[in-house]
Amino acid sequence: MRSIQNSLRQSSWHRTLLSIAIIFLWLAATAGLRRFTAPDEGRYAGVALEMLRTGHWLVPRLDGLPFFHKPPLFYWISAASMSVFGVSEWPARLPSVLGATLAASALLIFARRWADGVSASVATVVLLTMPFFYVGAQFANLDMLVAGCIAATVLAAAHAALAKERGGAWRGALALAFAMAALGVLAKGLIGFVLPGAIFVTWCIVTRRFRAAGMLAWWPGWCIFLLIAAPWFVAMQVRYPGFYDYFVVTQHFRRFAAAGFNNAHPFWFYGPVIVGLTLPWFAWIGWRGWQALAQRRGVQGASSSGASAGSSAFSDIDWLMLVWFVVIVVFFSLPKSKLIGYVLPALPPLAWFIAKALRATTLTRWTSSPRLRWTTGVAALLCVASVIAADRLGTPPGARLYLPAHEQIGADDQVVMLDAYYYEIPFYWRLRQTVAVVSDWQDPSLPLHDNWRNELSDAGSFEPAKAAATLVNRVDLPRLLCMPGRTWLVGSSASVLTSPWLVDPRFVLVTHNQEAAVWRFEGSPRGDAGCFAVGAPARSSTRDVS
Predict the structure, then answer these.
(1) Three-class SS state of 469
(2) How many other C-beta atoms lie within 10 A of the C-beta of residue 404?
């Protein structure tokens, strides 16, 4: 009998590992098909590449300056991935793929244990074919990585509570929950612990598991949490005394509570975002399923007391998923600054309820409904189409600036960016040197704007000596350009109309697109600061900027 049980257990684990492998392959299949989108991907991949290039893995750096907007877990995974698979978009996005794999796998394993295999499979397929989730899994920023950590933390903690109630083993699951929370903190800060903790405690209160809420005080778990999460934060505070105030106070509390940051949206912003980006599931099946569930609950309520019917309609797992979804959406709806990816952690519980709605209406077996199979196919096609659309519509100008084959940037050349920072260029040009960025760095209004200048200025405040060489004021540009050697200048395509020094014939237009252009300049062999000569228009090795 024991051998049969062991064989069944081993078979179950083999099936689980196969499912995880399939989940990963589906999410990773198109991760390398498109170039970086928006500034985020170039920013975070560039920080990871600089870790790999310099071999300094402790301090995240943006253009050579300490970059403490976010903790380092994404950069560590991305840099390690690029060290193994080479420098390209696919390994740079691997942290997001792994985060999505973690979220989907945790949902599958938890639902198989505490619900049933069909519900687990349906919920996982729904989640994996949501365009929102699929594209988020292939976007090189921190949102999906922390979403995976939050999902794993919530489900591991809930598993521990349910197992303990039934006299089963629970310490391993609770230890895993604390470990995942620590990784969540290393992925994106305090929300990696605060949000799953709030979800777990609220669920315990709603389902009257008051003693289970005390599991958060389990001291071995806190030892695990601190052992994983604390060393990097302590090291940064020791090395940079202003780290705590900047990372915790500014990037967490001020950013959450204050106005003035980018991407301001109304409170209801995430409602249409979630509905629209989870098509076709939400619109074609989710709504009908919810309607059927509401009708069924109405019939049950008519035959029993309202209080008991409302309670019996939801299982403990349903309450967990509902609390999880509501906490995430409400929490990120409170601040004025909202980005779409913030609510990625709400998608696993939404997938659960869509699967529940399907079971309540048409589904007895996964393969029994032609409409369901058709919807799954349409959803999968929409996922791939969304990746293609992101490549066509969202690629920034820096990612489209290709240097001609005969134009190569030497190891001793300097690269200067004029009144802009193109995050993608250090990655795609494989630069081995930091970029000098020319702007008005003495502008008193600079701290009031949430933009690239503010990011670099904040980074420079931690190492002023390096910032002095990297962040160059406009008045110092002639000195910079006239140093010995070759300079590559990157700026707006309109710079030729607004910058009179570009008429110097030594500025050669190398390449350009509608938004950005690259010039090559040969500096003075003697480093003469007065080397400019106003004369003929800038020459072009391609064609003039139109």
Answers:
(1) helix
(2) 11
Q: What band does 39 get if pLDDT is binned at 50, 70 and 90? A: confident
- Amino acid letter, residue 435: V
Q: Does 401 or 104 have the greater pLDDT score?
A: 104
Token couple for 446: 């600079």
CA distance 222 to 402: 50
Nearest Cα neighbor of 215 from 168, 166, 167, 177 is 177
Indicate yes or no: pTM above 0.85: yes
Which H or E run contains 486? strand 486-492
Per-residue confidence (pLDDT) for residue 2, from 0 to 100:
53
pLDDT reported for residue 235 = 97
Distance between CA atoms of residues 120 and 107, nearest Å: 7
| Contact indicator for 509, 503 with CB cutoff of 8 Å | no
- Distance from C-alpha of 458 to C-alpha of 453, rounded to nearest angstrom: 8
pLDDT in tens, 362-373: 545 555 677 778
Buried b (16+ CB within 10 A) or exposed e, 482-502: bbeeebbbbbbbebbeebebb
Residue 525 corresponds to which tokens in the numbers above?
Answer: 């062999």
CA distances from 105 to 65, 265, 436, 480 (A): 37, 32, 44, 53
Question: What does the pLDDT read at residue 485?
Answer: 83
Q: Tens digit of pLDDT for each residue in 239-277?
A: 999 999 999 887 777 766 665 566 778 889 999 999 999
Angle among Cα 363, 364, 368 to the nearest 5 degrees reads 75
Amino acid identity for residue 499 in this structure:
S
d(CA 537, CA 546): 14
Residue 74 to residues 59, 187, 342, Cα–Cα distance (Å): 13, 6, 16
Helices 219-239 and 171-188 cross at an angle (nearest 10°) of 20
What lies within 8 Å, CB to CB, of 357 at 6+ separation is 285, 286, 288, 289, 290, 292, 293
Cα–Cα distances in angstroms (integers) from residue 317 to residues 103, 159, 201, 230, 443, in the given order:
16, 10, 14, 32, 54
Which pLDDT does position 358 carry in this prediction? 79
Q: Is residue 68's pLDDT more than 50?
A: yes
List of long-range contacts for 232-237, beta carbons under 8 Å, 24+ apart: 232/58, 232/71, 232/72, 232/186, 233/71, 235/58, 236/59, 236/68
Rounded-to-integer distance, Cα 277 and Cα 113, Å: 29
* pLDDT at 538 > cutoff 80: no
- In the chain, the largest separation of any two C-alpha atoms, in whole Å, equals 94
Cα separation of 331 and 475, whole Å? 45
Q: How many helices (H) and strands (E) in the chain?
A: 25, 9
Q: Please give the Cα distance from 186 to 184 (Å, whole number).
A: 5
The 10s digit of each residue's pLDDT in 142-162 is: 999 999 999 999 999 999 999
Please state the φ and ψ torsions of residue 72, each to the nearest 5 degrees: -100, 0
Strands (E) in 176-257, as ranges, are none
Task: Tell me whether the omega of the peptide bond preceding residue 280 falls within 30 degrees of 0, making it cis.
Answer: yes
Confidence of residue 448 (pLDDT cuts 50, 70, 90): confident
Nearest 5°: the CA angle 463, 469, 473 is: 110
